[in-house]
Structure formats: C-alpha cells, structure tokens
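Hey, can you fold this?
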Amino acid sequence: MVRFGGEYPLTRDQIQFYRENGFVQLDNVLTAEELEFLRNALEEAVMAPARHAVVNSDGRSDYAKVFYQKVNIWRDHEGVREFVFSPRLAEIARRLAGFRAVRLWHDHALIKMPGPDSRPSPWHQDLPYWPMNEEGALSCWMALDDVTVHNGCMQFIPGTHRLGKLPPINLVQPQDIFSMIPPEKKHLIGKEPYVAEMKAGSCTFHDGRTFHYASPNRSDKPRRAMVVIYMADGTTYNGKRHICTDPLGLQVGDRLEGELFPLLAEGEPE
C-alpha cells in the first residue's frame, strides 16, 4: 500500500460547506499507521539541523510563545515529504477549492508549547503573508494530537473568506482584525466561531482569507500540527518578501512553479 495514497470519501455537502464558510473539518483522514509514521517523521525532522527548511522565529523570542514553526520540512526529510506529497490530501484541496490543478506552496510544522507562557495565535488571515496575486490558496491543518480548546485547537469565523485580503497583523503584538472589516462587508461574516476540536489524524482545510485563531496550550504536552498549503496552478508572484521566495530572484507576475512548488493534483474542476 502506498502511504498517504488512496482517496478520501469527500462529499458534495462537505465541498459546499467549505465554499460557503471558508473552512471544513474532516475526520479520520489518516489511518492509525499513517499517523504514527508522521509523528515519528516530524519529530526527527524538527530535531534535525535545517539544510533547506527554515525555522521561522520572526526574530523575536516571544514568537515561540505563540508557536514554533519550521517551514519546508519536506526538502530535508523523506518521511515528511511522503505526507506533503500525499495525493489524498492534494485531491481534497483541489476539489474543495474547485481548481483544475494544485501546487504546493509550502509545508510547516506548527507546535504550540504548553505552560503558563503559552499565548494564543490571534485572529488573522493567512493570505496577507503570502506573496500571491491570486486568492483561493488553502491550508490543510493536520492534528497530530487530539486537540481541544484546552490545548489550542483551531477556531474559524464562518464566511470571512468573502471579505477578501485584509492587512497582515503582527502575531506577537496583534491588532484587532475585526476592526479592519469595512462596515459595508460586516454582514458577510458569521456571528459565532466554529471550534474545531478533533482527534489526531483528523484535519481542517481553510481558505487563506478565512479568519482563524488558536487558544493557548494549557495542557502539559506540546500540541503538534503539520500544515500543507496548496495554491492553484498558475498562481503568480506579487513581489512581497517571503522566506520561500526571497532567494529565488522572481519578478512580479512570475508563476510560482517548478521544483520548489511541485504540481500535486489535477483533474476536472467541480
């Protein structure tokens, strides 16, 4: 059996929910064996020196109180690469977004450490941090531990993907993203957050424009997640700085493609 292969039984209702709300929770996406493999691979990859991957601390020690992040781990660890290149996950992303084909933007480990110093990941969008002209890129947030509000599960505001791209916020000293919503668009968002408590091996997919948040980790163990970000084939560079594109010498309008942004799934759009 090919690890992380095969199809997930994604339904039309789940696709419709994603498109209406900007996120969806999918349970039991990994088998028990795949989950254990990924946990071991991530532990090895996080502990190993980074050759191509990047540890993003944002230059501030307080950043680690929000989460520890290591980007593009697939470039250094074959086991993580197996997960990141999963046709099962890429096909879910492609179908949810309605794309003809999806490419990898990047992966990253998100580990929220436990204890009284743990801070929330404040309400924010992802897309403002990505140097893309087009909208619609989406993330798979895979839980490697059971997640609840107590240890920092994901939460989403339904409908916020309809707001478009707002200014990026500082994740250590965050601004109030809700104050940035134009008054004429406030009717587009849901009133209550969706709290994505779920078992390990389950995941969420969310649009890069969807408001999301994770509470502090008040447990006694790290909360581990592995994230894979997908973008439509044909996505182009907007010229803004980013750790994944800064070394590449790209020009505004260049397509994000090639060895670092491989094609992961393609088919007829739904």
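Oh, and this one too while you're at it.
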Amino acid sequence: MKTYLVLNGPNLNLLGRREKEHYGTFTLADAEASLRADAAAIGCGVAFLQSNHEGALIDAIQAAPGTYAGILFNPGAYTHTSVALRDAIAACPVPVVEVHISNIHAREEFRQKSLLAPVCRGQVSGFGLESYRLGLLALAGDAGAGRAG
C-alpha cells in the first residue's frame, strides 16, 4: 500500500484558534482525522508532520524518497519566502502537491506568489479542509507522473 507524507508548516498547529475567517474552525487534528478516512477510502496510507521550523520540513522532504510515494504539503507562510524549501522540493524525486486552506491568490498581495508552485506537481488552494482531500486524490491518482512542465 502506498503511503503519502502530509507536511504542515508554521502556525498550522493553531488551526481552529487563528484567523477563522480564512482558515475555518477545524483543528489540525480534525484535518488529520479527515485525511486518514479519505486515505483509507482510496486504499492508501498517510503519515503526518507539522513543524514551525523550516529545517525540520526540509529534512522530512529529503527523507521522503524510498519511504513515501508523494508529499502533500501545506507550507504556510514559507510558501512565499522559502528558497530553501523550493530547492528541497526541486531535488526530491517524489511528487509534491502544494495545498492551502485559503485561496492565496485572493489574499494580500505578498501571499499571492508561491515560490514552491513551480517545482510542485500541482497546487490546490482555497477549498478549506477539502484542499487536503483534493491534493491526496491528485497524488494517489498521479503519483508516478512526475512534475508538470
């Protein structure tokens, strides 16, 4: 059975308590439980890591090949700032799908540019908790297809 790594970046541990107008009322534990059920329904597994530290996220991306069939990644604010995460994704041979709860393209101007999207297989943005499910479906259906481009 294929297993996918679900990475969540900074401040996503505060889901349910922060900026509910953008992120809703569900918690990270709610998101993980929902994604576990989705994974079981399509016959795959998921593993989770949330970190507020860029280096821990990079380490997880670098360790993924050989263990995970793909990565579902909500990089939070690192989306707009991290060349280091971009480089880690570019060097990673497993597909990465970038996900966002809010529609980053409808937010503040500084949030509308993703440094990571060009090296990811795709991006799902703006569908709340559903963004994770859609990203998982994309990975599970297309994990061997490589990167767009």
